[in-house]
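Fill in residues.
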């Protein structure tokens, strides 16, 4: 089958790879309809993420159709159109029973090599194997488009859980560092959690315009602290959601938060260390947390919100293209020419 693979730092290519096959009774094989290119895919193909070797099939966001499943799969049928979490979970262990599926000891993250557990081939391919299919997959619900369902599987779940876990309380002043897809959806999530004002900070004018069109106050990074000072009598944001990644993103977030405020980081960090401003954080009683989206836990709530028309995440998708054009589209994403690209494996009607 055809698939997008990591080739070398900053480079992906199209390759013919073996078709996946069932390896356990809880597996399903999915014929992929669409697969997203995510910021984590850019990290995975940058050469900086440990455990991602050349030849790794990339991609962790997808929708598709069930074409085969193991004898232990009970909740799916052949031909079911599905949405998926970006990682797998057994559904039975202590962590899963606490609804903290990311910490499942049998977790595998699609398309990231061994960076987050045992390797599992990604979904930017014609077919993908899905372990623990009854937990990892869900049927596409009525009233939710394929595009929205794909975003629920990662980007929307991540932004939503960031607002939930901070937590964003009614009347809060919230800053979002980074206007990529997760930052844009964190903006909407913060508004739905009751934020009085959400300031989205990004250097790219197009991303600021998109944020402003969806209820945020948009700001260039160099002006964000001044703007927050004007909104809060100099205190700073109650909550800062960091959606850029790396040391610079964390440093920027800490520069915007008020004393006793919260920074919630939703980025995929690959650096081994960061010089944490310990004394200032102690004296300021700052709260710093990290969030990884868990659509297994929140997708029922999110599909209800989307199907009711309260939120439509699909506005972050700036382009659809064929799977074979993935190398060009990865380049566009790295150069910030596009906000979010979906690769269509099956021809769209």
């Amino acid at each position: 089958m055809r698939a997008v693979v990591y080739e070398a730092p900053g480079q992906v290519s199209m390759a013919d790879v073996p078709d996946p096959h069932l390896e356990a009774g809880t597996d399903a094989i999915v014929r992929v309809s669409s697969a997203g290119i995510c910021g984590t895919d850019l990290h995975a193909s940058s050469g900086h993420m440990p455990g991602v070797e050349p030849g790794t099939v990339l991609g962790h966001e997808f929708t598709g159709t069930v074409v085969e499943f193991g004898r232990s799969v009970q909740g799916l049928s052949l031909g079911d159109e599905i949405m998926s979490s970006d990682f797998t979970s057994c559904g039975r262990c202590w962590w899963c029973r606490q609804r903290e599926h990311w910490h499942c000891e049998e977790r595998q993250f699609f398309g990231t090599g061994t960076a987050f557990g045992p390797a599992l081939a990604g979904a930017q391919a014609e077919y993908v194997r899905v372990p623990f299919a009854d937990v990892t997959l869900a049927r596409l619900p009525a009233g939710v488009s394929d595009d929205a369902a794909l975003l629920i599987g990662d980007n929307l779940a991540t932004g939503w859980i960031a607002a939930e876990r901070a937590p964003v309380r009614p009347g809060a002043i919230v800053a979002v560092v980074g206007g990529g897809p997760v930052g844009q959806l964190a903006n909407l999530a913060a508004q739905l959690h009751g934020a009085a004002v959400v300031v989205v900070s990004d250097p790219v004018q197009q991303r600021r315009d998109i944020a402003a069109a969806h209820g945020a106050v948009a700001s260039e990074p160099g002006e964000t602290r001044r703007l927050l000072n004007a909104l809060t009598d100099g205190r700073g944001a109650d909550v800062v959601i960091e959606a850029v990644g790396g040391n610079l993103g964390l440093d920027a977030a800490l520069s915007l938060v008020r004393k006793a405020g919260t920074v919630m980081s939703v980025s995929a960090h690959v650096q081994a260390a960061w010089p944490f401003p310990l004394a200032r954080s102690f004296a300021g009683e700052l709260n710093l947390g990290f969030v990884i989206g868990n659509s297994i836990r929140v997708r029922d709530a999110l599909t209800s919100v989307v199907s009711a028309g309260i939120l439509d995440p699909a506005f972050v998708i700036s382009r659809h293209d064929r799977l074979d054009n993935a190398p060009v589209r990865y380049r566009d994403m790295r150069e910030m020419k596009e906000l979010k690209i979906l690769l269509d494996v099956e021809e769209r009607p």
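The CA atoms of residues 166 and 310 lie 21 Å apart.
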